[in-house]
Write a structure and sequence with these properties.
Elements (H helix, E strand, L loop, with lengths): L8 H23 L3 H28 L4 H28 L4 H27 L6 E3 L3 H19 L7 H15 L4 E3 L8 H20 L2 H28 L11 H9 L1
Antiparallel strand pairs: 1-2
Helix pairs in contact: 1-2, 1-3, 2-3, 2-5, 3-4, 3-5, 3-6, 4-6, 4-9, 5-6, 5-8, 7-8
Amino acid sequence: MKLENAKYILPNAFTMASLFAGFNSIYLSITATGVHEMSLAAWLLVFAMLCDGADGRVARMTGSESEIGVQLDSLVDAISFGIAPAFLLYTWGLTPLGLLGKFIAFLFAAAAIIRLARFNVTANQHEGVMKYFFGLPTPLAAGAVVSIIMAHLALTGRVTTGATWAVAIMAILLGGLMVSNVKYRTFKDMKFSTKSILVIALLVCGSVILGAYTRPSAAFVAIMILYISLGLFGTLVSWSKAIFGDDDISDEISESELTEERWR
């Protein structure tokens, strides 16, 4: 193997580690008989998220970005953040619904895969740093599932929940957000000013305090709800500006517009 090709191993190793975590999370979700197994299945997806965040950064740092790495990352995300959390949802709260529960879990997985496919099409057309994701990113949708399940396991000590219809509604809402045009900040363009550092510090302190008084998993739930709510709030503000003819609307091309143009 040529020495210059060795640099491609490390980022792809992180991607494969994410796949390994997603695969084992699925297995544990299917076979779980106790809180320990379900908790481990959830934590494996947290590990997958960390690996997913690391592979792209490592590739950029080492100058080893490649098209095959991009496609590999997307395929792994479909498993670790689409199929794996769908199995968690089904085992945790959708089993009593039988075939309907399977279908709702499938809808979550299908929405995640559609979201990834749409992003791939858009990313190939978009130059420069993307300020927004259009639709809830799949790792964050999976993170919402994982954080709520972890909080339930920690607070109740039970593998399953009786709130079956609430779980079904949550799965459908998260799936809908993934394939929606709701804008979510990527924070890739964020400049570390005094104001931004202060906001981050307040969020971190608030999360630590909440976790200390309740459970760390409760802080994760609060962070996920906050991020999802900010996206919905920003979209409502944009719609109100469009309805009332505000001249300050940004002329940025949206991810959905780019996708529609590609598919025409």
